[in-house]
Amino acid sequence: MEGYPIFNEEHRAIRKTIREFVAKELTPHADEWEEAEEFPSWVFKRMGELGFLGLHFPEEYGGEGGDYLCKVILAEEMSNCLSGGVAMGVGVQTDMVCPLLLKVGSESVKERFLKPALRGDQIGCLGITEPDAGSDVASLRTTAEREGDHFMINGQKTFITNGVRADFAVVVARARGSEGAKGISLLIVEKGTPGFSVARKLDKVGMRSSDTAELAFQDCRVPAENLLGEEGQGFYHIMWELQPERLFGAVSSVAGAQLTLEATLKYVRERVQFGRPIGKFQAIRHRLAELATQIEAARQLTYYVAGLINTGHFPAKEISMAKLYATRVAYHVADEALQFHGGYGYMMEYPIQRFWRDSRLSRIGGGTDEIMLEIISKQIGL
Ligand SMILES: Cc1cc2nc3c(=O)[nH]c(=O)nc-3n(C[C@H](O)[C@H](O)[C@H](O)COP(=O)(O)OP(=O)(O)OC[C@H]3O[C@@H](n4cnc5c(N)ncnc54)[C@H](O)[C@@H]3O)c2cc1C
User: Which of 38, 92, 98, 129 most suits a substitution to test ligand 1, by most atoms within 8 Å of the C-beta?
Assistant: First the structure.
């Protein structure tokens, strides 16, 4: 957070501006957007105007030219809006879609999609997951058949964040007959392209203000200029993309856990049972002290990895460790916090239940706990 040596004066100023924006323009709407099961698209536009979507993107594409830590600050401060779905919807734009457009997009792609996305004029989504291909990305079945100057896409994607409202989708698909990691490409499909439709909006346990879609592609013709990155190299582009996405998950989890802890500390100081505040019972004090320690450990690991990414390194082992540990800590903190709230914790009118539901996703999205453990096992030589 702001006092940590990893951040400088400029970072602190950015944090202050984002914090004020979140408190004034987002947090007051959290309950309404959770109830409506969506947040309005003006959030993207407004954040684009304020420069928040482009904090860590080059100025030539409309970004602010800041370092990676600016994006860490954005992810942390977005947690304060008290609706995980809003933070996630915006995070998909800033940490999943736009980094890919910048890293592997042609100049034409950057002009047509990256610039409007950083302004918040266009919203993007990233379609990797399919009904029969989740953790095993290389088994995806959606096809993109090259036919002269266009590609013909057929298949289905599921669990796609921002998928309902997206102006364009980055779709991961393979050449017919190809297998495994080979033959996979990324294609940008614009809303309204014949053959591209939102099959349905999905109903979720948490992150309820974000939209999550199933997407369908039936003989969907996309011009070859919408190819993102190198043809046949899509699997490797996605493996790169998943690294910053995972750290985003870790950063958001630590920030969410801190908020949950603070709300719980307040509660246990105020709630009186057996003649004293429940926070005075050692059984509770010690568990809260443990939670605070775990959050601190998760934060230190996350900041260490953020520092490495800031200098251009993407260490798969440490990123996976940070994602695994921070997301587990966040869910554990939320679960313990709910316990300390007793029956009130289980009531919808208290915010704890939302932290509990929202925090559960991070152990699944962007690579499950088990996949993180697989990566770490390989990296330690097993
Ligand atoms: C709300 C939400 C938003 C999402 N947003 C997006 C998005 O924007 N874009 C997108 O492309 N995807 C998105 N996803 C999909 C997400 O990335 C996948 O759900 C995730 O990768 C897991 O895939 P799966 O759900 O198919 O589970 P599966 O892969 O079927 O896994 C089921 C279980 O088996 C375990 N398992 C699988 N393989 C192994 C193994 N080798 N060893 C041990 N255990 C294993 C898993 O860890 C898990 O516990 C989203 C998901 C959700 C729920």
Answer: 129
Mean pLDDT for back-to-back runs of 10 residues, the chain (382 residues): 89 98 98 97 98 98 98 98 98 98 98 98 98 98 97 98 98 97 98 98 98 98 98 98 96 98 98 98 98 98 97 96 98 98 96 97 98 98 97
Structure confidence at residue 2 (pLDDT): 72
The most distant pair of C-alpha atoms in the chain lies apart, rounded to whole Å, by 79
Measure the CA angle with vertex 338, ends 337 and 339; round to 5°.
90
Question: Locate tokens 């997206």: which residue?
Answer: 166
Is the pTM value of this prediction over 0.70? yes
Considering the candidates 245, 290, 318, 349, report the single residue annotated as catalytic: 245
Question: Are 294 and 335 in contact, with CB atoms under 8 Å apart?
Answer: no
- Where along the chain do its domains lie? 9-122, 126-231, 236-379
CATH fold of 126-231 reads Butyryl-CoA Dehydrogenase, subunit A; domain 2 (2.40.110)
Q: Supply the pLDDT for residue 282.
A: 98
Please tell me the distance from the alpha carbon of residue 34 to that of residue 241, in angstroms, as a whole number.
Answer: 28
Q: Whose CA is nearest to atom 4 of ligand 1?
A: 159
Output the CA 134–ligand 1 centroid distance in Å. Answer: 5
CATH topology of domain 9-122: Butyryl-Coa Dehydrogenase, subunit A; domain 1 (1.10.540)
Beta-carbon contacts of 252 under 8 Å, excluding residues fewer than 6 positions away, are 75, 76, 78, 79, 84, 87, 88, 91, 362
Ligand 1 pocket check for 201: Cβ under 6 Å:
no
What distance in Å separates the CA atoms of residue 262 and residue 378, rounded to the nearest whole number? 37
Active-site residue, 245 included:
yes
